[in-house]
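Predict the 3D structure for this chain.
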Amino acid sequence: DHFNELLAELKMAKSTAWEDLIAANGIVIKIEQTKNSIGAYENIKIDVWVYANTWGLYLDEIVIDISQLTPFCASLLVEVVGLPVEFPIAQNSIRKDPTIRLGVVSYFVGNVKRKLKVVNISAVAISV
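Done. Predicted structure below.
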């Protein structure tokens, strides 16, 4: 839901377009171009949009295919960083990384159990 938080920060409308595209893939790479044809000695701009709900390194290739020319291939390396889990107790914290303090337990006290909620925010299963 970080994408929607970014939209809120930029005061843009909330969107589910990426969520529909990503499904179980974990990452979506979308290419948008400003126009389909290029005049002589003209440049065009292409936008590369990446959305991920997992983490890791991803390598893909962008193929630019212009009729009657050999296709040009550009490598795209995407590094998705961030924790794959959230600790709801640590939300709205001023610290970058969550800190969990379980306190001091006396040796003479019996077993102490504490529950900590952990939410997997990635598209893949993880072991904690």
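The chain has a mean pLDDT of 78.
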